[in-house]
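Side project, low priority. Logging it here so it doesn't get lost.
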Amino acid sequence: MKHKIFIDGSEGTTGLKIFDRFKERDDIEILRIDSDKRKDLAERRRLINKSDVTFLCLPDEAARESVKIVDNEDVIVIDASTAHRTKSGWSYGFPELSAEHRNGIAAGKRISVPGCHATGFIALIYPLITKGIVGTDYPLTIGSVSGYSGAGKGMIAEYENEARIKDYDAPRLYALAQNHKHLPEMTKVCGLNQEPLFNPVIADYFQGMVVSAPLYTNRFLKKCNINELVNIYQEFYNDAKLINVIPAENEVISSNFLCSNGMAGRDDLNIYAVGNDERIVLYAQFDNLGKGASGAAVQCMNIALGYDEDKGLVI
């Protein structure tokens, strides 16, 4: 039996990348909407309720509207927007964090895909909170460098415009008012007492990102060096198919450079711990369109439908 899949918002970047991951699959039937009916509420309602799984690749308000027109209680909704990431009744789509998260996805009808920046931050910090290395009151700071594809079709068009202004030639800092929309989920999922300071940068390349979290070891609740941190991550993510913990001694760290587009086109995520006995910087390197969006959405669908979680993904 083929599962029927509808992508509400199929012409956006995330929707298109989900389509890409279904190209070689014969267990999926895509329910397509005519281009001139993409905003037709009645047609969207029909296709959503005909599907086994509907992906929402929409702005927040449109995603909320789509949820309201789900009449078929058997439909699994996987929302790639920010709208439901901290909402009660929705499973947070990060199965590697715990058996509870994985079971919530497997049994849930409402699944929210993590934000890209949040994915990197939570992958790094959640294990340290869980293992009692870092306290929930630690004053965390996040850095992030990402390609422009994560900013949506409008920003992509601006970056790829031959007549663009010179500002786009250099990396640009944004969300200067500390109000980035991913901060609430970072705080809630990790159980933090306060939102972290966040310094995101968008740069002139299409896809891929690195999220960083610097830590002072003298603020740890338990004494821990780099090698011990790597061991903690390796143990925590031991069964994870889409998270790779990179050994402390490896060629990337030895080169003293870490490229933010190094995982472009892939659906897994690399974790690095570097620095010295006093100061350690954690890095999550992944594709903002992969594990940070479409890849994570398909991973959640695979788990919810009982497939191997990495089916159709690039790892």
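Brief comment: The mean pLDDT is 95.
Revisit when time allows.
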